[in-house]
Amino acid sequence: MPFYQKRGQIPNKRHIQFRDDSGNLYWEELISREGFSHMYSNVYHIHPPTAVETVGELKKNDLVAANQPHSHHHLRTAGLKSNGDAISSRIPLFFNSDVVITKAHVTDSMDSLYRNGNADEILFVHSGSGQFKSNFGKMDLTPGDYVIIPRGVIWQIEANKDMRMLVIESAAPIETPNRYRNEFGQLLEHSPFSERDIRTPEFVEPAEDNSIEVEVKLKNGIQTYGYHHHPFDLIGWDGYYFPYIFNINDFMPITGKIHQPPPVHQTFQGDGFVICSFVPRLFDYHDESVPAPYAHSNVDSDEIIYYVKGQFMSRKGIEKESITYHPMGLPHGPHPGKIEESLGTEDTNELAVMIDTFKPLNMTESALDFDDDKYPYSWIKS
Q: For domain 249-377, which architecture applies?
């Protein structure tokens, strides 16, 4: 999905001599996916990006599945005890081999730099503000932002106001839906968002040269490397590989005469999962339409919904930062009375993020700490 971008100074050809005013060669680095056969960017450093002066020990962080019955769940994550920076505050809630879903209550700015060497990431900023700084430049963070970070990007977040984030780590690249792109990768005319809605890094002058630590996320934990030169020393870059931001409020919903299924809300895809955005929209306009969704047996997918704000018309007892988890093999649908309440309703003000996975998810013990044990029985009419 990313489109060509160019920042700063670059030579007129790849892989040729490129020198500063004193005649010193800049260091070219190719950052590429799938070897040399997928998207890439060429970046130009003042100093060698390979100069490691210390290698720390691996701090293991294995994910462990909780022993819990197969049932529906409602997590009230607003009360989750989490603080620290955008990495240390993360509390894992769900995982499988394709995706890890965590919650983070960010109270501090990051002192060190961070690189996920094992997964792409989406940071969904529920509330608060800050600045995302990377080797590609800086981007301001605002509520509703999806921050898409390809694996290998080096970054840190400066928190201006405490942030609450939903974090999604993907074992495969995170992309826009195939059906919304033409053969050239451009978002189509009928896509619910376009390239105009995407924010890309603002180029900044090279960082002051100094040694700095980079925390690198690996499969089983985080290992710290001490770099002799600050990796934010780029004089320029170009290509298709870079972090970017799309805000959920820029998603233009697709509506219809009768109820539209969740795929019309799809915003991103990864191997083994999709991400959808439920945003304020007009309801169906058939004379006998039923705005509330019908009951659904998701026999091939697990469903996570993270509730951001507004009234989610199909559920009772939902609050900001609630997460519902409806696993495959069990039907779910509107709570009793919600279908009747929806009749004649013209619009909704709900804002929510949905993640559907095509492999079963595991819950962690931390997730169970905020689980409403009465939720599986909430469809019994009282």
A: Sandwich (2.60)
